Amino acid sequence: MAQRAFDIITDSSCDLTKEYLEEIGVDVVKLGFTMNNVNYEGESGESIDPKDFYAQLKEGAMPTTYQVTAETAKTHIEPCLENGRDVLIIAFSGALSGTAGSFAVAARDLAKKYPKRKIRVIDSLCASMGEGLLVYYAVKKADEGATIEETAKYVEDLKLHICHHFTVNDLFHLKRGGRVSSATAVIGSILKIKPVMHVDDEGRLVAIGKAMGRKKSLHTLVDNLLETKDMDENDPIFISHGDCIEDVEYVKALLKEKMPNTQIFVNYVGAVIGSHSGCGTVAIFNKGTHR
Question: Which domains, and CATH codes, for the chain?
Fold first, then answer.
């Protein structure tokens, strides 16, 4: 394996574990949220276990989230530049957060101070472990010896082939964030209709179907993955969830029936995205022909 020729930074909306990010040598800038008058995560907030976060959500907590600022981004980028390293940044979808824009502002400011260094900011147009999957492929490319320009082009070309398929158990949080209408939320709850959604080519959350009941919605996620997949035997599937591991195990079993040798990585939907998607979210991510 070639030594990586540049540094890679992402943000916490990638929903990769701290241990995995440390293992692959990727720095992460944390978005944050406020819940019950306490600031969590970000650069200086309290830590919180995912199960504790979702427990408070189930009890009615209504967190508000905040993006990475340009000044915070600079504190992560500048040390790399000072050490003579170029930097590739992969950011949360600009359609869902201003974080990519903050990274871009920071990069422009620092480029003036370090004119010999390269800083490339990529709006992933991805969310949760979809962003994480894009980071996974970027690291793999970089570790094969690609330059920052080659890796940036590869990631730009790949990002619209990172497919997101997800469903939620309760439409309330999507309604609160303006993702679905109040009428849709009320009718959906009464009729037990579960939305099947994805992230489109503009990086937005979009409903692409609906299913009657939870199990049917989980089957639809798998069907959508099988329809869009464009994967080699070494390409993984990522799954994130809103504290509903039993449903994840059900989805994994369905996937293993069809793709028995595929590696599957699982983690929580992080609190920042979970504030908007709610408990019971199940999301699966794969490399595919199209979103």
Answer: 7-160 (3.40.50.10170), 161-287 (3.30.1180.10)
Whether 247 contacts 259, CB under 8 Å: no
pLDDT band at 207 (very low <50, low <70, confident <90, very high): confident
The kind and range of the H/E element at 8 are strand 7-11
The rounded radius of gyration (Å) of the Cα atoms in the chain is 19
Query: Rounded to whole angstroms, how far apart are CA atoms 213 and 187?
Result: 13
Query: What is the spatial distance between Cα 249 and Cα 240, in angstroms, rounded to a whole number?
Result: 11
Which amino acid, 290?
H
Among 93, 179, 104, CA closest to 132: 93
Q: What is the pLDDT of residues 98-141, one digit of tens each?
A: 999 999 999 999 999 999 999 999 999 999 999 999 999 999 99
